[in-house]
Design brief:
Blueprint: H1 5-18, H2 26-35, H3 57-66, H4 78-91, H5 94-106, E1 111-114, E2 130-133, E3 139-145, E4 156-162, E5 173-179, E6 185-190, E7 199-209, E8 214-215, H6 221-237, H7 248-257, H8 264-291, H9 299-322, H10 347-353, H11 364-375
Parallel strand pairs: 1-4
Antiparallel strand pairs: 2-3, 3-7, 4-5, 5-8, 6-7
């Protein structure tokens, strides 16, 4: 049966009647919404969805917002929603889907991403964290991960580790779901230039992972990880924003509210960045509409590139526009925040935080290669290590 907008409105009305938002516990309401198939309507029945077209999610969201229903605080659980969930849906067993997707969506269990390493950031496939299987049973993991957002809050992590050092680097990786509360998992804060420790480094020492928490086949982790990475780039670069949403909003607001700061040169630069921001916003909307019919592709890399460049240019312009005020900083207190806020606090924070935008979610240099090779079809860069066993690579 094809699910229509009218059917979704009917189901949403039934949910609201059975669980009035004003008198229902927030978590109980979210669980009921998931069980009714109204969490992400394009997911299969029994997994928070109804197998409906992805484009109809806005119908449910609008009805619930109008009724004052709580949401699942998506900014706090963005890694789970945007990266872990689509990967589990595509590669997970039925048992894994049933176990992880519901508490992930309701926010009961926060997720983080154990991919990057001190020696494997831009070249992620060079990772050295090892997972060794003991007599066909558990995997024992040893290594270090870095730049891990929300690791200090997370119950679960998506983890890639090397399971075969005797084959080329891309072929010897396996994908796991790691319990962050297990013995041997140590999370240490990484204080950033903003003063916060929104990122962490994670040390894995003899961590035992049952084979039932492996996602995909042994040695197929790189292919599984591509689903995660493609979704990550769309989540970062293709987020839905209103006009003047994101970094351009505060800069434009300062321009309107502080006429004494204006100059002709700053006006021309602000206009250019305002137009580019609007183009990027509309392009992101078009990309999301294309995703309705399938999985995200390499186009997300282009959106993430634009996101990083614009954030850095706009925040720099805002600091310059504010003059001496732009050099002030509100608070250097060491915090471990619960969510990533690219545009929050003052102009100084926005300027410093945006410096990370061209690193996180794939460096701009790597993304330029992806756009060149997979979107534009240009010749690939020479890769001398393509057929060399990982153990024989120079390090």
């Amino acid at each position: 049966m094809t699910v229509t907008a009218a059917e979704l409105r009917r189901r949403t009305a039934e949910l609201l009647a059975a669980h009035p938002p004003a008198t229902t516990d927030r978590l109980d309401f979210l669980r009921a919404r998931f069980d009714a198939g109204l969490a992400w309507v394009h997911y299969p029945q029994g997994l928070g969805g109804l197998g409906a077209p992805r484009s109809l999610q806005v119908v449910v969201d609008a009805e619930l917002e109008a009724a004052g229903a709580p949401d699942n605080d998506p900014r706090r659980i963005g890694i789970g929603l945007g990266m872990a969930a689509p990967t589990i849906l595509k590669y997970g067993t039925e048992e894994q889907k049933q176990r992880y997707l519901r508490p992930l969506w309701t926010g009961e269990e926060v997720w983080c991403q154990l991919f990057s390493e001190p020696g494997a950031g831009s070249d992620l496939a060079a990772l050295g964290t090892r997972a060794v299987r003991e007599d066909g049973g558990d995997w024992v993991v040893n290594g270090q991960k870095v730049w891990t957002s929300s690791a200090h809050l997370a119950r679960w992590a998506i983890l890639i580790a090397r399971t075969d050092p005797d084959v080329p680097k891309h072929a010897g990786i396996t994908y796991f779901l790691c319990d962050m509360t297990d013995p041997g998992v140590e999370v240490r804060p990484l204080r950033q230039i903003t003063g916060e420790a929104e990122f962490n480094e994670v040390f894995l020492t003899g961590v035992r992972i049952p084979d039932s928490r492996r996602l995909g086949e042994v040695g197929d982790g790189w292919r599984v990880a591509q689903t995660t990475l493609n979704n990550e780039r769309v989540a970062i670069g293709g987020m839905r924003l209103p006009r003047e949403g994101g970094m351009i909003g505060p800069a434009a607001g300062t321009w309107r509210e502080r006429p004494e700061l204006r100059t002709h040169d700053l006006h021309q630069r602000l206009l250019k960045l305002w137009v580019e921001s609007e183009v990027a916003r509309l392009t992101a909307e078009r990309l999301r509409q294309q995703l309705v019919a399938g999985q995200p592709g390499p186009e997300g890399a282009g959106m993430k590139l634009a996101f990083a460049r614009l954030n850095q240019e706009i925040s720099g312009l805002e600091v310059e526009l504010r003059g001496e005020e732009g050099l002030l900083y509100d608070d250097w207190t060491m915090r471990r925040p619960e969510l990533v806020d690219f545009t929050g606090r003052d102009a100084g924070y926005r300027y410093l935080r945006s410096k990370g935008n061209s690193i996180e979610g794939g460096t701009s240099e790597v993304l330029l290669n992806i756009v060149a090779e997979r979107v534009l079809g240009l010749p690939a860069e020479p890769r001398t290590d393509k057929d060399v066993a990982w153990k024989d690579l120079a390090r």
